[in-house]
Amino acid sequence: MASAPRSWFRWFVVGVAVVLLQGCGGHPKNVLTPVADTSPQSPKVDMLIATTRTRSAVPGEMFNGERSRTPAFADMTISIPPSKVRKEGQVAWPKRLPPNPATDFATVKADDLDVGEAKKWLSASVRKTPDGSVLVFVHGFNNRFEDAVYRFAQIVHDSGVHSAPVLVTWPSRGSLLAYGYDRESTNYTRNALETLFQYLAKDPEVKEVSILAHSMGNWLALESLRQMAIRNGRLPTKFKNVMLAAPDVDVDVFSQQIVDMGKQHPQFTLFVSRDDKALAFSRRVWGDVSRLGAIDPEQAPYKKELEDNKIMVIDLTKIKSGDSMNHGKFAESPQIVQLIGQRISEGQTLTDSHVGLGDQILVATTGAATAAGNVAGLVLAAPVAVVDQDTRDNYATHVGNLGANTTRSVASGSCDGTRPTPNCKR
After folding, report:
1. How far from chain centre, in Å, is Cα 4?
2. Which pTM value belongs to this model?
3. Residue 37: helix, strand or coil by DSSP?
Protein backbone atom coordinates (compact mmCIF):
# COMPACT_ATOMS: atom_id res chain seq x y z
CA MET A 1 0.00 0.00 0.00
CA ALA A 2 2.90 2.37 0.69
CA SER A 3 4.51 1.88 -2.72
CA ALA A 4 1.87 3.86 -4.62
CA PRO A 5 2.26 7.07 -2.59
CA ARG A 6 6.03 6.78 -2.79
CA SER A 7 5.81 6.28 -6.54
CA TRP A 8 3.55 9.31 -6.94
CA PHE A 9 5.83 11.43 -4.78
CA ARG A 10 8.87 10.43 -6.85
CA TRP A 11 6.99 11.37 -10.00
CA PHE A 12 5.99 14.72 -8.45
CA VAL A 13 9.58 15.54 -7.46
CA VAL A 14 10.88 14.60 -10.91
CA GLY A 15 8.16 16.67 -12.57
CA VAL A 16 8.94 19.72 -10.48
CA ALA A 17 12.64 19.32 -11.20
CA VAL A 18 11.95 19.22 -14.94
CA VAL A 19 9.80 22.32 -14.71
CA LEU A 20 12.49 24.13 -12.74
CA LEU A 21 15.19 23.18 -15.20
CA GLN A 22 13.06 24.34 -18.13
CA GLY A 23 12.11 27.62 -16.49
CA CYS A 24 13.70 30.94 -17.12
CA GLY A 25 16.98 31.83 -15.49
CA GLY A 26 15.32 34.29 -13.14
CA HIS A 27 15.57 38.03 -12.75
CA PRO A 28 16.17 40.56 -9.99
CA LYS A 29 13.42 40.70 -7.39
CA ASN A 30 12.04 43.72 -5.54
CA VAL A 31 12.18 45.81 -8.70
CA LEU A 32 9.17 48.00 -7.93
CA THR A 33 10.87 50.85 -6.11
CA PRO A 34 10.01 53.90 -8.25
CA VAL A 35 12.88 55.44 -10.21
CA ALA A 36 13.22 58.76 -11.96
CA ASP A 37 11.74 58.90 -15.45
CA THR A 38 15.06 59.32 -17.23
CA SER A 39 13.60 58.13 -20.54
CA PRO A 40 10.56 60.37 -21.14
CA GLN A 41 10.21 59.06 -24.70
CA SER A 42 9.56 55.53 -23.40
CA PRO A 43 5.87 54.48 -23.41
CA LYS A 44 4.09 54.42 -20.06
CA VAL A 45 1.30 52.17 -18.79
CA ASP A 46 -0.77 53.46 -15.87
CA MET A 47 -2.81 50.78 -14.10
CA LEU A 48 -5.01 50.24 -11.08
CA ILE A 49 -4.00 47.42 -8.77
CA ALA A 50 -6.62 45.52 -6.76
CA THR A 51 -5.15 42.81 -4.57
CA THR A 52 -5.80 40.46 -1.67
CA ARG A 53 -2.06 40.17 -1.03
CA THR A 54 -0.45 41.42 2.17
CA ARG A 55 1.60 44.60 2.02
CA SER A 56 5.31 43.88 2.17
CA ALA A 57 7.88 45.50 4.41
CA VAL A 58 10.56 44.75 1.81
CA PRO A 59 11.46 47.80 -0.28
CA GLY A 60 10.64 47.25 -3.93
CA GLU A 61 8.29 44.31 -3.33
CA MET A 62 5.12 46.23 -2.35
CA PHE A 63 2.99 43.10 -1.84
CA ASN A 64 4.06 39.57 -0.98
CA GLY A 65 2.38 36.20 -1.42
CA GLU A 66 0.51 36.08 1.89
CA ARG A 67 -3.22 36.70 2.27
CA SER A 68 -4.63 39.97 3.50
CA ARG A 69 -7.86 40.28 5.48
CA THR A 70 -8.96 43.21 3.34
CA PRO A 71 -8.31 44.14 -0.29
CA ALA A 72 -5.70 46.80 -1.05
CA PHE A 73 -5.31 49.16 -4.00
CA ALA A 74 -2.49 50.98 -5.74
CA ASP A 75 -1.86 53.25 -8.70
CA MET A 76 1.22 52.21 -10.65
CA THR A 77 2.91 53.53 -13.77
CA ILE A 78 5.34 51.28 -15.63
CA SER A 79 7.82 52.63 -18.15
CA ILE A 80 8.44 50.31 -21.10
CA PRO A 81 11.64 50.60 -23.14
CA PRO A 82 11.38 51.60 -26.80
CA SER A 83 10.76 48.91 -29.42
CA LYS A 84 14.31 49.18 -30.73
CA VAL A 85 15.61 47.52 -27.54
CA ARG A 86 12.71 45.12 -26.83
CA LYS A 87 10.80 42.58 -28.88
CA GLU A 88 7.02 42.63 -28.67
CA GLY A 89 5.75 39.95 -26.33
CA GLN A 90 8.76 40.16 -24.02
CA VAL A 91 9.14 41.68 -20.60
CA ALA A 92 12.53 43.43 -20.48
CA TRP A 93 13.49 42.61 -16.91
CA PRO A 94 16.31 44.75 -15.52
CA LYS A 95 19.63 42.97 -15.35
CA ARG A 96 20.59 45.02 -12.31
CA LEU A 97 19.04 47.50 -9.91
CA PRO A 98 17.96 50.18 -10.17
CA PRO A 99 16.40 49.58 -13.59
CA ASN A 100 17.15 51.86 -16.51
CA PRO A 101 13.91 53.07 -18.19
CA ALA A 102 15.76 53.36 -21.50
CA THR A 103 16.43 49.61 -21.62
CA ASP A 104 14.28 47.98 -18.92
CA PHE A 105 10.78 47.79 -17.60
CA ALA A 106 10.84 50.28 -14.74
CA THR A 107 8.36 51.50 -12.14
CA VAL A 108 8.07 55.29 -12.16
CA LYS A 109 5.05 55.56 -9.85
CA ALA A 110 3.70 53.29 -7.11
CA ASP A 111 1.12 54.99 -4.89
CA ASP A 112 -1.05 53.22 -2.35
CA LEU A 113 -4.76 54.04 -2.60
CA ASP A 114 -7.73 53.59 -0.31
CA VAL A 115 -11.10 52.43 -1.65
CA GLY A 116 -12.35 55.94 -2.33
CA GLU A 117 -9.18 56.91 -4.17
CA ALA A 118 -9.34 53.71 -6.23
CA LYS A 119 -12.87 54.61 -7.33
CA LYS A 120 -11.71 58.10 -8.31
CA TRP A 121 -8.81 56.60 -10.31
CA LEU A 122 -11.19 54.30 -12.14
CA SER A 123 -13.67 57.07 -12.88
CA ALA A 124 -10.98 59.37 -14.26
CA SER A 125 -9.36 56.61 -16.33
CA VAL A 126 -12.64 55.39 -17.82
CA ARG A 127 -13.50 58.94 -18.94
CA LYS A 128 -10.22 59.02 -20.88
CA THR A 129 -11.11 55.91 -22.90
CA PRO A 130 -12.93 56.29 -26.23
CA ASP A 131 -15.66 53.83 -25.26
CA GLY A 132 -15.89 53.79 -21.46
CA SER A 133 -14.29 50.36 -21.27
CA VAL A 134 -12.31 48.51 -18.61
CA LEU A 135 -9.91 45.58 -19.05
CA VAL A 136 -9.49 43.35 -16.00
CA PHE A 137 -6.51 40.98 -15.96
CA VAL A 138 -6.23 38.05 -13.55
CA HIS A 139 -2.80 36.41 -13.49
CA GLY A 140 -2.01 32.73 -13.01
CA PHE A 141 -0.11 30.32 -10.78
CA ASN A 142 3.44 30.93 -9.57
CA ASN A 143 3.38 34.71 -9.98
CA ARG A 144 5.08 37.13 -7.66
CA PHE A 145 3.54 40.59 -7.49
CA GLU A 146 6.11 42.11 -9.84
CA ASP A 147 5.57 39.26 -12.32
CA ALA A 148 1.89 40.14 -12.58
CA VAL A 149 2.49 43.90 -12.80
CA TYR A 150 5.12 43.76 -15.54
CA ARG A 151 3.31 41.10 -17.57
CA PHE A 152 0.10 43.10 -17.55
CA ALA A 153 1.99 46.26 -18.53
CA GLN A 154 3.46 44.34 -21.47
CA ILE A 155 0.03 43.06 -22.54
CA VAL A 156 -1.57 46.49 -22.33
CA HIS A 157 1.22 48.16 -24.30
CA ASP A 158 1.72 45.48 -26.95
CA SER A 159 -2.01 45.02 -27.54
CA GLY A 160 -2.63 48.73 -27.97
CA VAL A 161 -5.80 48.41 -25.90
CA HIS A 162 -7.45 51.71 -24.97
CA SER A 163 -9.44 50.41 -21.99
CA ALA A 164 -8.75 51.41 -18.39
CA PRO A 165 -6.41 48.64 -17.17
CA VAL A 166 -7.17 46.94 -13.85
CA LEU A 167 -4.85 44.23 -12.51
CA VAL A 168 -6.40 41.80 -10.04
CA THR A 169 -3.57 40.05 -8.24
CA TRP A 170 -4.21 37.33 -5.70
CA PRO A 171 -1.83 35.81 -3.09
CA SER A 172 0.52 33.57 -5.04
CA ARG A 173 3.75 32.66 -3.30
CA GLY A 174 5.62 32.55 -6.61
CA SER A 175 6.84 29.00 -6.03
CA LEU A 176 6.23 25.83 -8.03
CA LEU A 177 5.98 23.92 -4.76
CA ALA A 178 3.12 26.14 -3.54
CA TYR A 179 0.52 24.87 -6.02
CA GLY A 180 -1.99 23.94 -3.30
CA TYR A 181 -1.56 27.24 -1.48
CA ASP A 182 -2.03 29.18 -4.71
CA ARG A 183 -5.17 27.27 -5.60
CA GLU A 184 -6.72 27.99 -2.21
CA SER A 185 -5.70 31.64 -2.59
CA THR A 186 -7.87 31.89 -5.70
CA ASN A 187 -10.80 30.59 -3.66
CA TYR A 188 -9.91 33.09 -0.94
CA THR A 189 -10.14 35.94 -3.49
CA ARG A 190 -13.48 35.01 -5.08
CA ASN A 191 -15.61 37.36 -2.99
CA ALA A 192 -13.24 40.29 -3.48
CA LEU A 193 -13.25 39.85 -7.26
CA GLU A 194 -17.02 39.52 -7.35
CA THR A 195 -17.24 42.78 -5.36
CA LEU A 196 -15.13 44.47 -8.05
CA PHE A 197 -17.30 43.00 -10.80
CA GLN A 198 -20.45 44.20 -9.03
CA TYR A 199 -19.02 47.70 -8.76
CA LEU A 200 -18.12 47.78 -12.46
CA ALA A 201 -21.60 46.52 -13.32
CA LYS A 202 -23.28 49.32 -11.35
CA ASP A 203 -20.93 52.16 -12.32
CA PRO A 204 -22.80 54.12 -15.03
CA GLU A 205 -19.54 55.51 -16.42
CA VAL A 206 -18.33 52.00 -17.26
CA LYS A 207 -19.93 50.99 -20.54
CA GLU A 208 -18.05 47.78 -21.27
CA VAL A 209 -15.96 45.26 -19.33
CA SER A 210 -13.50 42.74 -20.78
CA ILE A 211 -11.75 40.11 -18.68
CA LEU A 212 -8.49 38.37 -19.52
CA ALA A 213 -7.43 35.53 -17.23
CA HIS A 214 -4.41 33.26 -17.39
CA SER A 215 -3.77 29.76 -16.05
CA MET A 216 -5.08 29.31 -12.49
CA GLY A 217 -6.49 32.83 -12.63
CA ASN A 218 -9.23 31.44 -14.86
CA TRP A 219 -10.61 29.48 -11.92
CA LEU A 220 -10.86 32.71 -9.93
CA ALA A 221 -12.44 34.66 -12.78
CA LEU A 222 -14.97 31.94 -13.64
CA GLU A 223 -15.96 31.32 -10.03
CA SER A 224 -16.46 35.04 -9.40
CA LEU A 225 -18.60 35.39 -12.52
CA ARG A 226 -20.58 32.32 -11.47
CA GLN A 227 -21.20 33.77 -8.00
CA MET A 228 -22.28 37.05 -9.53
CA ALA A 229 -24.70 35.36 -11.94
CA ILE A 230 -26.27 33.30 -9.16
CA ARG A 231 -26.57 36.31 -6.85
CA ASN A 232 -28.03 38.65 -9.49
CA GLY A 233 -29.93 36.12 -11.58
CA ARG A 234 -27.78 36.86 -14.63
CA LEU A 235 -24.56 38.54 -15.76
CA PRO A 236 -24.66 42.16 -16.91
CA THR A 237 -24.73 42.81 -20.64
CA LYS A 238 -21.79 45.23 -20.35
CA PHE A 239 -19.53 42.23 -19.63
CA LYS A 240 -18.71 41.64 -23.29
CA ASN A 241 -15.55 39.52 -23.59
CA VAL A 242 -14.08 36.92 -21.25
CA MET A 243 -10.79 35.56 -22.57
CA LEU A 244 -9.56 32.34 -20.98
CA ALA A 245 -5.84 31.89 -21.69
CA ALA A 246 -4.41 28.43 -20.91
CA PRO A 247 -7.05 27.84 -18.23
CA ASP A 248 -6.02 25.46 -15.47
CA VAL A 249 -9.62 24.38 -14.95
CA ASP A 250 -11.24 20.95 -14.90
CA VAL A 251 -13.24 20.60 -18.14
CA ASP A 252 -16.22 19.06 -16.33
CA VAL A 253 -16.30 21.82 -13.75
CA PHE A 254 -16.14 24.44 -16.51
CA SER A 255 -19.20 22.92 -18.16
CA GLN A 256 -21.13 23.30 -14.92
CA GLN A 257 -19.88 26.85 -14.38
CA ILE A 258 -21.22 27.86 -17.80
CA VAL A 259 -24.60 26.33 -16.97
CA ASP A 260 -24.72 28.17 -13.64
CA MET A 261 -24.05 31.51 -15.36
CA GLY A 262 -27.23 31.15 -17.39
CA LYS A 263 -28.04 31.85 -21.00
CA GLN A 264 -26.98 35.51 -20.86
CA HIS A 265 -23.25 35.34 -20.56
CA PRO A 266 -20.31 37.12 -22.20
CA GLN A 267 -18.59 35.96 -25.36
CA PHE A 268 -16.08 33.44 -24.07
CA THR A 269 -12.87 32.98 -26.02
CA LEU A 270 -10.75 30.00 -25.05
CA PHE A 271 -7.02 29.88 -25.84
CA VAL A 272 -5.72 26.29 -25.83
CA SER A 273 -2.40 24.63 -26.57
CA ARG A 274 -2.01 20.88 -26.58
CA ASP A 275 1.73 21.16 -25.92
CA ASP A 276 1.27 23.12 -22.67
CA LYS A 277 3.64 21.35 -20.27
CA ALA A 278 2.37 23.17 -17.20
CA LEU A 279 -1.18 21.98 -17.82
CA ALA A 280 0.06 18.45 -18.50
CA PHE A 281 1.66 18.54 -15.08
CA SER A 282 -1.52 19.93 -13.52
CA ARG A 283 -3.57 17.17 -15.11
CA ARG A 284 -1.54 14.55 -13.26
CA VAL A 285 -1.94 16.43 -9.99
CA TRP A 286 -5.72 16.59 -10.43
CA GLY A 287 -6.31 12.89 -11.04
CA ASP A 288 -5.66 12.74 -14.80
CA VAL A 289 -8.71 14.87 -15.64
CA SER A 290 -8.27 17.04 -18.74
CA ARG A 291 -7.51 20.70 -18.15
CA LEU A 292 -9.56 23.11 -20.20
CA GLY A 293 -6.52 24.86 -21.68
CA ALA A 294 -5.04 21.70 -23.18
CA ILE A 295 -8.03 20.07 -24.89
CA ASP A 296 -8.27 19.26 -28.58
CA PRO A 297 -11.28 21.42 -29.51
CA GLU A 298 -12.01 19.40 -32.65
CA GLN A 299 -12.52 16.17 -30.74
CA ALA A 300 -15.67 14.87 -29.05
CA PRO A 301 -17.18 15.70 -26.67
CA TYR A 302 -15.52 19.12 -26.56
CA LYS A 303 -16.40 20.25 -30.06
CA LYS A 304 -20.16 19.98 -29.62
CA GLU A 305 -20.16 21.45 -26.11
CA LEU A 306 -18.12 24.44 -27.22
CA GLU A 307 -20.32 25.04 -30.24
CA ASP A 308 -23.52 24.64 -28.20
CA ASN A 309 -22.30 27.32 -25.78
CA LYS A 310 -20.99 29.52 -28.63
CA ILE A 311 -17.50 29.51 -27.14
CA MET A 312 -14.80 30.73 -29.50
CA VAL A 313 -11.70 28.53 -29.39
CA ILE A 314 -8.24 29.54 -30.57
CA ASP A 315 -5.74 26.72 -30.79
CA LEU A 316 -2.21 28.04 -30.25
CA THR A 317 -0.50 24.65 -30.41
CA LYS A 318 1.54 25.59 -33.49
CA ILE A 319 2.71 28.90 -32.11
CA LYS A 320 6.37 29.02 -31.13
CA SER A 321 7.28 31.29 -28.26
CA GLY A 322 10.10 31.95 -25.85
CA ASP A 323 8.15 30.20 -23.09
CA SER A 324 9.73 26.76 -22.68
CA MET A 325 6.59 25.54 -20.89
CA ASN A 326 4.32 26.73 -23.74
CA HIS A 327 2.06 28.17 -21.05
CA GLY A 328 2.18 31.90 -21.85
CA LYS A 329 1.81 31.96 -25.62
CA PHE A 330 -1.17 34.31 -25.59
CA ALA A 331 1.00 37.13 -24.21
CA GLU A 332 4.24 36.35 -26.02
CA SER A 333 2.83 36.10 -29.54
CA PRO A 334 2.67 39.61 -31.05
CA GLN A 335 -0.09 38.65 -33.49
CA ILE A 336 -2.35 37.25 -30.79
CA VAL A 337 -1.91 40.01 -28.24
CA GLN A 338 -2.35 42.72 -30.88
CA LEU A 339 -5.54 41.16 -32.18
CA ILE A 340 -6.92 40.88 -28.65
CA GLY A 341 -6.24 44.55 -28.05
CA GLN A 342 -7.66 45.58 -31.40
CA ARG A 343 -10.91 43.80 -30.84
CA ILE A 344 -11.32 45.08 -27.29
CA SER A 345 -10.55 48.63 -28.36
CA GLU A 346 -13.07 48.41 -31.19
CA GLY A 347 -15.73 47.37 -28.71
CA GLN A 348 -16.40 44.10 -30.51
CA THR A 349 -16.36 40.47 -29.58
CA LEU A 350 -13.55 38.34 -30.92
CA THR A 351 -15.59 37.27 -33.94
CA ASP A 352 -17.51 39.06 -36.69
CA SER A 353 -20.54 37.73 -38.51
CA HIS A 354 -18.53 36.35 -41.41
CA VAL A 355 -14.90 36.84 -40.48
CA GLY A 356 -13.26 34.72 -37.81
CA LEU A 357 -10.33 35.79 -35.70
CA GLY A 358 -8.38 33.00 -37.34
CA ASP A 359 -8.71 34.77 -40.70
CA GLN A 360 -7.01 37.85 -39.30
CA ILE A 361 -4.20 35.81 -37.80
CA LEU A 362 -3.76 34.00 -41.10
CA VAL A 363 -3.49 37.34 -42.87
CA ALA A 364 -0.88 38.43 -40.34
CA THR A 365 1.19 35.32 -41.02
CA THR A 366 0.71 35.01 -44.78
CA GLY A 367 3.87 37.03 -45.36
CA ALA A 368 5.98 34.29 -43.80
CA ALA A 369 4.24 31.72 -45.96
CA THR A 370 4.83 33.72 -49.11
CA ALA A 371 8.50 33.94 -48.25
CA ALA A 372 8.52 30.17 -47.88
CA GLY A 373 7.06 29.98 -51.38
CA ASN A 374 4.51 27.24 -50.85
CA VAL A 375 1.36 26.22 -49.05
CA ALA A 376 3.40 24.17 -46.60
CA GLY A 377 4.88 27.48 -45.50
CA LEU A 378 1.39 28.78 -44.77
CA VAL A 379 0.49 25.72 -42.76
CA LEU A 380 3.63 26.12 -40.67
CA ALA A 381 3.32 29.89 -40.36
CA ALA A 382 -0.37 29.99 -39.51
CA PRO A 383 -0.26 29.58 -35.74
CA VAL A 384 -3.93 29.08 -35.06
CA ALA A 385 -6.84 26.78 -35.76
CA VAL A 386 -10.07 28.45 -34.76
CA VAL A 387 -13.23 26.51 -34.07
CA ASP A 388 -15.63 28.82 -35.85
CA GLN A 389 -17.22 27.93 -39.16
CA ASP A 390 -16.33 31.26 -40.77
CA THR A 391 -12.60 30.71 -40.41
CA ARG A 392 -12.85 27.12 -41.65
CA ASP A 393 -14.90 28.25 -44.65
CA ASN A 394 -12.57 31.14 -45.40
CA TYR A 395 -9.30 29.28 -44.89
CA ALA A 396 -9.23 28.09 -48.51
CA THR A 397 -9.30 31.69 -49.70
CA HIS A 398 -6.05 32.46 -47.89
CA VAL A 399 -4.42 29.37 -49.28
CA GLY A 400 -5.66 30.30 -52.74
CA ASN A 401 -3.69 33.51 -52.60
CA LEU A 402 -0.52 31.44 -52.80
CA GLY A 403 -1.48 29.73 -56.00
CA ALA A 404 -4.33 27.68 -57.43
CA ASN A 405 -2.15 24.66 -58.16
CA THR A 406 -1.62 23.89 -54.49
CA THR A 407 -4.96 24.92 -53.06
CA ARG A 408 -6.83 21.69 -53.78
CA SER A 409 -4.44 19.53 -51.77
CA VAL A 410 -4.82 21.59 -48.62
CA ALA A 411 -8.38 22.83 -48.33
CA SER A 412 -11.68 22.22 -50.01
CA GLY A 413 -14.59 24.54 -49.41
CA SER A 414 -18.03 23.77 -48.12
CA CYS A 415 -20.21 22.28 -50.85
CA ASP A 416 -23.39 21.90 -48.85
CA GLY A 417 -24.99 24.93 -50.48
CA THR A 418 -25.42 26.85 -47.26
CA ARG A 419 -22.23 28.87 -47.50
CA PRO A 420 -20.09 27.63 -50.43
CA THR A 421 -16.53 28.83 -50.52
CA PRO A 422 -14.54 29.84 -53.62
CA ASN A 423 -12.72 26.48 -53.61
CA CYS A 424 -15.80 24.26 -53.40
CA LYS A 425 -15.35 21.27 -55.72
CA ARG A 426 -18.55 19.43 -56.48
Report:
1. 36
2. 0.74
3. coil
